[in-house]
Design goal:
Blueprint: H1 16-26, E1 32-35, H2 45-57, E2 61-64, E3 69-70, H3 74-107, E4 119-121, E5 127-129
Parallel strand pairs: 1-2
Antiparallel strand pairs: 2-3, 4-5
């Protein structure tokens, strides 16, 4: 099922692959969901708890290969919830640091963000495209 998850939006459960997976879970077609890494599924504690509740109602285990976790046991569920809380904290802390750094740059008069329209002017008459990365 790994190919069904969108690597572009790991924070949201509102993704086509997750929607298909949840439909399969609700239809009783799945006994276990195996993921390479839990953080690729979601980094939001609330979403993880919602998934675990849905899986538990249908008798579906969540197994993570990288973390060697199986929600079939109480210890596995405990460790999973602790890890999810750390992921959420990390995501929020990164956001706070980024906002603080941008605010500081603005207060110093520095431009924050990409160049306008993808064009950087090296001289007044010679525009040059900025790199995408």
């Amino acid at each position: 099922m790994d190919d069904h998850f969108s690597a572009n939006r790991p924070k949201s459960l509102n993704r086509p692959g997750v929607t298909r997976l949840l439909a399969m879970v609700e239809e009783g077609k799945v006994k276990a969901v195996i993921v390479a890494k839990l953080e690729r599924l979601t980094r939001i504690v609330k979403d993880l708890c919602e998934l675990l509740e849905r899986f538990e109602r249908r008798g579906v285990a969540l197994v993570s290969v990288a973390e060697s976790l199986d929600t079939g046991s109480a210890a596995g569920r405990l460790v999973l919830n602790i890890m999810a809380a750390v992921w959420q904290w990390e995501r929020e802390a990164i956001g706070e640091r980024t906002r603080d750094a941008m605010r500081h740059k603005r207060s110093q008069g520095e431009r924050v963000g990409n160049s306008r329209g993808g064009v950087k002017r090296l001289t007044r008459n010679k525009p040059e495209l900025s790199s995408a990365c």
